[in-house]
Specification:
With 345 residues, this protein is α+β, with helices and mostly antiparallel strands. The protein folds into 2 domains: 116 residues, 3-layer Sandwich (Rieske Iron-sulfur Protein); 217 residues, Naphthalene 1,2-dioxygenase Alpha Subunit, Chain A, domain 1 (Alpha-Beta Complex). The strands form 4 sheets. Strands 12, 13, 14, 15, 16, 17, 18 and 19 form an 8-stranded antiparallel beta sheet that branches. A hairpin with a 6-residue loop joins β6 and β7. α1 crosses α5. The protein is globular. The two termini are 14 Å apart.
């Protein structure tokens, strides 16, 4: 169930080689191999990684200025995807071209538009501000899943799993699973999805927080996030000692996270993530510590979701027992299903 008229993250901007590097970047999105490269002026181009002749990957060719030379038979394509030279032919046929994709870079995420080019709307880009903001610090992350992206989306829409999958990392308390989230629809400013708010009072600090500083008293914790089409989480989370005012952040842990899922194929997914902390935190080791904690926890997720996927028989989702844990993911899936159906008609 893929929505096409929307933006998908294909890379962090640091993954795209500079113009003077020989390497060409390629990654598959919605089953389509896409090459991204930088022109001499620094602007990026997203082009189908498939020569129109024999479908050889253009990424195994070479750059010639802002053009790409196919490494199989030498056809040369400019940055618009138009073939401008074919060895041995003086006149290039008009149909000799490859697909290009609308591309936007926002706060270090490189987005490609997978639907109708004329409908590409920058207003529909998510507000991933903490990926590149002077008040926030993070390390960017990427992970590959051999599972469908919606199973990972289900996991992100249901934080009750923190109590069990992440009992020794991000979770730390059964109270997270016991807390009922508030779920609202988001349908404004070009964004569609759900807003999920979960508040857990008077719980021990999780092992993850102990890497910031020792906590010898219980915390009030919160997770508030938008989960937006096609599959992007933008979250404010944290915890402060019980008794501290909500306006007093002196002893609080405050975090902002941006995570997004991009289907590679029907059964594989790209996962881009970061978790930011305030730039005023004095210990420079905190950034690395947060990143390592995330990688550890997200490997726990991947192990569980991969095991789940291997256990699913055809049509198994129709036989799953719906419970209160699923309120956010059921709403999101219904919204997405309606959007896909409307797009196809």
């Amino acid at each position: 169930m893929w929505l096409r008229n929307c933006w998908y993250v294909i890379a962090w901007d640091h993954e795209i080689p500079s113009h003077d590097e020989e390497r060409l970047f390629t990654r598959k999105v919605l089953n389509e191999p896409i090459m991204v490269y930088r022109r001499q002026d620094g602007e990026m181009v997203a082009m189908a990684d498939k020569c129109c002749h024999r479908h050889a990957p253009l990424s195994v060719g070479r750059r010639e200025g802002d053009a790409i030379r196919c490494g199989y038979h030498g056809m040369l394509f400019d940055a618009t995807g138009r073939c401008i030279e074919i060895p041995g032919i003086e006149r290039v046929p008009a149909q000799a071209c490859v697909k290009t994709y609308p591309l936007q870079v926002k706060n270090k995420w490189v987005f490609v538009w997978m639907g109708e080019p004329e409908r590409a709307d920058p207003q529909m880009l998510p507000d991933n501000f903490s990926c590149d903001h002077p008040n926030w610090v993070n390390l960017p992350g990427y992970m590959h899943y051999d599972t469908p992206y919606l199973l990972i989306a289900d996991n992100l829409l249901d934080f009750s799993h923190l109590s069990y999958v992440h009992a020794k990392t991000l979770g730390g308390s059964p109270a997270i699973a016991q807390a009922r989230p508030q779920v609202e629809r988001v349908t404004s400013n070009g964004q569609r999805g759900v807003k999920v708010s979960r508040f857990i009072d008077n719980v021990p600090a999780p092992p993850f927080y102990q890497r910031f500083r020792p906590f010898d008293s219980p915390l009030n914790r919160w997770f508030v996030y938008d989960f937006l089409f096609p599959s992007t989480l933008l979250m404010s989370s944290g915890g402060r000692p019980v008794g501290d005012s909500p306006d007093d952040d002196r002893r609080a842990v405050r975090l902002h996270s941006c995570q997004t899922l991009t289907p590679e194929t029907e059964t594989s997914t790209h996962y881009f993530f970061q978790q930011s902390h305030p730039a005023g935190v004095s210990d420079p080791a905190v950034k690395q510590s947060i990143y390592q904690s995330l990688v550890e926890a997200f490997n726990e997720d991947r192990d569980m979701i991969t095991a789940q996927f291997r256990n699913l028989a055809p049509g198994a989702e129709a036989d799953m027992l719906p419970l209160h844990f699923d309120v956010a993911l059921v709403q999101f899936r219904k919204m997405l299903q309606d959007a896909v159906a409307a797009e196809q008609t």
